[in-house]
Amino acid sequence: MIKKAGAILLGCVCLVLSTLAQDRIQSRSYPTTDFxxxxxxxxxxxxSFGELRAMHFHSGLDFKTNQRxxxxxxxxxxxxxxxxxxQLGGFGNAVYLTHPNGYTTVYAHLDHLSPELxxxxxxxxxxxxxxxxxxxxxxxxxxxxxxxVIAWSGNTGASGGPHLHFEIRDxxxxxxxxxxxxxxxxxxxxxxxxxxxxIYQLNGHPFSEHTPRQYLGVAGANGNYHLSNxxxxxxxxxIGFGISAIDQNSTSVNxxxxxxxxxxxxxxTVYTFSVExxxxxxxxAINAYIDYPQFVLSRRWIQKCFILPGSQxxxxxxxxxxxxxxxxxxxxxxxxxxxxxxAGNTSTLNLKVQASIPKDxxxxxxxxxxFKYNQRNEYxxxxxxxxxxxxxxxxxxxxxxxxLPQMPGAYSATHRIHSRLTPIHENFDLWIKPDANIGALANxxxxxxxxxxxxxxxxxxxxxxxxxAAFGDFYIKVDTIPPVITPLNIRDGSNLAGVSSISFKAHDxxxxxxxxxxxxxxxWILLQQDYRTRIxxxxxxxxxxxxxxxxxxxxxxxxxNVSRYTxxxxx
Length: 571
Ligand SMILES: [Zn+2]
What we know:
By secondary structure, this protein is mainly beta. Helix content is 5%, strand content 41%. The protein contains 4 helices and 49 strands. The strands form 10 sheets. Strands 17, 18, 19, 20, 21, 22, 23, 25, 26, 27 and 28 form an 11-stranded mixed sheet that branches. Strands 3, 6, 8, 9, 10, 12, 13, 15, 16 and 24 form a 10-stranded antiparallel sheet that branches. The chain has a 5-stranded antiparallel sheet with strand order 30-31-35-39-38, with no helix packed on it. The longest helix has 14 residues, at 115-128. 39% of the residues are buried. The protein binds zinc ion (ZN).
């Protein structure tokens, strides 16, 4: 269960160190001398493991690189290159190394790879005629020594600035683990800071945007926090607590995430949270951890200290009654928050609670259809069907449906499927019946989320079917308009002598781009893609002989509308 790590202190250094090396909430131990830092720079982080991000817990450490690209990236341990990946968004260029100690390290947003690895990626792209690739390698193909340069740091993929994203994963389960538990520490004497707390009156009802909340301001510094308005809180019945807290370290001004959170009532631990390790297919459960309605409405991050029953992420090593505290006597209680960073720096906040005996519970208040979080749920009326597979709801739901007026250009009414303030873990099945006048355009139909655009769709059995990842307002549109291609430095008859590359942009109005294909004289060419600028670029290589050539660029959207651009050029 809970293991106390870092408590081995000897002799006279005890008095000094014991204030630094606090007990850490950790389920198991990890090798702390195997791995080296992947960069030669003094270790400094722009992002911590488990930090709160939209739709996910951050899966690694973001090492700072002086706002520059091009630092050599070293193998953290000997082993072999087990996977290479190029993604337009996400990790950009990424290298995975598997090590004999049972762990896999991941290096992402790389600028470029070592020449042998780059050639391997290039060949795979050529063979599969695709810029985005993701493939595994055998242990004998690219063995690496500890410290070997495998790549150079960059800013590729969905990266907000130059840095190295670094992960340590369990090679068997692929769970990602906090790299700072492997001895890769970052200088840190700064305790977490607490900016507010929230109190939720749960009373046995599912958590939702309707749960009564009370926000309380917090003051303090250097590990000691208190209510801005010191008071004894009067509470009764089932209560959940929440907190807003961040952490910083000694090496940067970046606001990172905390390591652990503990809630104690009268000195008894009733809830713990710690970012030790988690599985990628559970990371969306961040929306069960935070106060999701508040996040959607105000972008405010509140970390709930109670667990929703449908959350399956492994970040809660110890809790009683899912962290929900039942105040049902008339005594004075103390509630303590203990917030730590991975270095053990600790911040605390104490509350005084005057409990009172709850009055009778309110009767069942369900007004829509009750959906149970641990079952398959269905709703249907004439024009709409909704199915939510098990594992997608974090709590029971008072499911609601409403029909709204038809949008201009839509082929159905707008259907309000519950509320965008309730998160879904992966997706649900949505079927909408189109207007009869859709006719032959049915195969061009998609379902549109009024706030987020197309969620895709296929026409089948008289319905358009899709798998949206969020509740909201949905209607049907058709996409008959092909993508628009904008050549950036070529036109028909161009002389491209001395030009190193050809660039394009392409854009689709509704369903989104499914594929790009470019050829010169009928031969496939690789288009490098940039996530931020959306520019597609062919870089000339020595396969293009001097002379006259024909370039063709074909872009297809998700509904198979095709645009074609052709130009002759000399080079
Ligand atoms: Zn990262």
